[in-house]
Design brief:
This protein has 105 residues and is mainly alpha-helical. It has helices at residues 16-40, 46-74, 99-102; strands at 8-12, 76-80. The protein contains 3 helices and 2 strands; from the N terminus they run βααβα. A two-stranded antiparallel ribbon has the order 1-2.
Length: 105
C-alpha cells in the first residue's frame, strides 16, 4: 500500500484589478472622514472632530480587511501535480538558473 500523500501546487491569481475597487472605496472613506473633521473643526469642536475621524477609520478598517482577505483567499488555488510533472523549488542561494553553463555558442 502506498501511504504517500498527493502533491499540490499552490497558485495565487490575485491581480491589482481584483482589489482596485476596494482601494478606491477606502480612499473615499478617508476623504469623507477628513471632510467631516474639517466641518466640525472650530475652537470648541476639536475633540468632536478628532473623535469623528477616529470612529470612521476604526469602524471602516475591519470591513476593508475582511474584503481584502476574502478576495485574496478566493484567488488561491491548489492544483494536483501529475506524477511526471517537474516542480520548481525556490532557493535563496541561486534565485536564477545559470544560463552560461547550459548555452553553447
Amino acid at each position: 500500500m502506498d501511504n504517500e500523500l498527493p502533491k499540490y501546487r499552490l497558485r495565487c491569481t490575485l491581480t491589482f484589478g481584483d482589489i482596485y475597487g476596494q482601494i478606491i472605496v477606502w480612499l473615499i472613506v478617508i476623504f469623507l472622514s477628513l471632510a467631516a473633521t474639517l466641518a466640525l473643526w472650530s475652537s470648541t469642536g476639536q475633540p468632536y472632530a478628532f473623535a469623528t475621524i477616529g470612529i470612521i477609520l476604526v469602524l471602516s478598517l475591519p470591513f476593508l480587511l475582511f474584503a481584502f482577505v476574502t478576495t485574496l483567499l478566493n484567488r488561491i488555488e491548489f492544483e494536483p501535480l501529475d506524477e511526471g510533472a517537474e516542480t520548481r523549488k525556490l532557493s535563496l542561494e541561486r534565485p536564477f538558473p545559470d544560463k552560461t553553463a547550459t548555452s553553447s555558442r
